[in-house]
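Bench notes, afternoon.
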Amino acid sequence: MLGLFISYKGNFSNVVALVEKLIERSLVITRDEIGEKCIFQLFNIEFVLMGNHELEDDFGIAFTNYEIHINMIPLNSGQEIDGYIKMFNSISLYLADKISKTLKTEIIVVEDLQEIVYKSNRGQGY
């Protein structure tokens, strides 16, 4: 599991619109007890885009500095395909870099909520 944590103080719908543009499909924002989120599947990956992740700082990672979280969950059906893990990791880095550059904001990619595997610092975007 990989998580993209986005330091963005703007409107959640701006991030949703950007993700829609990147994946070329419409998303539906739902609300639950945690907050706003979108769930979709693409390339045998389940994506959960959350406007409020409610995670505390842990493993030396300041999760509270990142308002938006995109959780990427590999689906079992995809893991049977050669090259799936490489594709999964590449998609996470691609999304992180595109979102970071477009919103001019910092993003970290975290593996299993324990280790930062990528950090992009583009300054605070609004």
